[in-house]
Amino acid sequence: MERNAALLLVIAGLLGLILANLPATASLVHDLGALHQVSEYLLCLFFFLVGLELKRELTEGTFKNRKALLVPLIAAIMGALVPAGVYYLVTQSDSIARGGWAIPMATDITFALAVFSIYATTMPSGSRQFLMAFAIIDDILAIVVIALFLGAPIQTGALVTGSALLGILIPTKYTKTLEDTIHPWVAYLVLPLFAFTALAVEVNLTVVEVVSSVVGFAILLRVIGKVVGITFGAWLGSLLVKKSGEKVLALADYARISVLGGIGFTVAFLVNDIVFKDYELEHAQALVASLLAAVLASVVAAVIFKLRKRS
Fold first, then answer.
1. 80 neighbors 233 (Cβ within 8 angstroms)
2. Residue ranges of the chain with pLDDT lower than 70?
C-alpha cells in the first residue's frame, strides 16, 4: 500500500501541476478553489489516522515501552526544530519569507515508508519502527504548530487538531479496525486529491529561480537540517536509554534513516497554503522547492541504503 500510495500521490500531484500550466486546461484547473477547500477538509481523515497510529503505537507498538519512545521523540523534536530554525535564520531579513518557517518541519510518512520499503532491505531490525515513530511525532508537532502559531483560521486549526486528538482518544480495541478501514481511503483518495489540488498552481519560475530565491533555498536546506536534527536527537536519546539496557541502532544507521526526513509533501503543502495564501510568488517558490527537496532526499536515501548493502 505504501508504494502504490506514494506512486499515486506523485501522479496526482504532477497531473495537477501540468494541467495548471497547460494553456488548454489552465483556466479549468484554476477554478478548482472549492474542490481544494473540500480536499483540505478531507485531510481531517489523514490527521485522524495519524492520531490512531500514535494511539496504537502507545498501547501496542513501539511506544508501549516508554523508554523506547525516548529516542524517536528527541529525534523528532530536534528534526523539526533544526530545519525550522535554519529556515528562519536564512529568511530573517525578509518579513514575508520568514513566515514559512514551519514548512520544513514534518516528514511525509507515505513517501518515506515507500522509499524505505524499496531500498532499505538490509537495514537492521528496528529501523522501520524508528522511521514510523519520528514521522508520526513530527506530524503531531506540525499539527500543534498549525493550530497555535501559524495564524490559521480557527476552523482549520480546530479541525486539524480535533481530528488528531479524536484518533488518540479512540479506545484501543477499535484502533486497528479503524486504521484498516480508513487507511486505503486516505492513501488512495484523500492524499492524492489534496496533492492534485495543492499542486494545481501556475508556476512561472525556473528551477534556478526557485533555488536562488530565499524561500526556495531555505526549504531545500531542510534535507541537511533534518539529517543534522534527527541524527543528533537520536544520538542524544541513545545515550539516555543505553544506561537502562535498551537496544539502539548504530549512529550511522540513524543518520541514513534521517535522510528520509527531508521528504516533505502533504503537510508541507498545507502549511504553504496557510502561510503564503496571499503571496503568489512565495507560494510558488515554496511549492517547487518542497518538490525538489523531496526528490533530492529520496535519491540520496536510496543511494546511501544501496551503499550500505554493498558494504
1. no
2. 1, 29-30, 33, 152-157, 245, 309-311
Residues counted in the chain? 311
Grid coordinates belonging to 166: 479524536
Q: What nine digits make up the cell of 286?
A: 515554496
Q: What is the DSSP string of 77-102?
A: HHHHHHHHHHHHHHHTT-TTGGGGTT
Contact at 8 Å (CB) between 169 and 28?
no
pLDDT confidence of residue 309: 65
Cell of 291: 518538490
Name the residue type at position 221: L
Give 124's DSSP letter: P
- Determine what percent of the chain falls in helix, strand and coil, rounding each to the nearest 5: 80, 0, 20
CA 232 to chain centre: 19
- C-alpha cell of 147? 493550530
d(CA 103, CA 286): 8
Provide the 3-class DSSP secondary structure of residue 222: helix
Domains in the chain with CATH codes: 2-310 (1.20.1530.10)
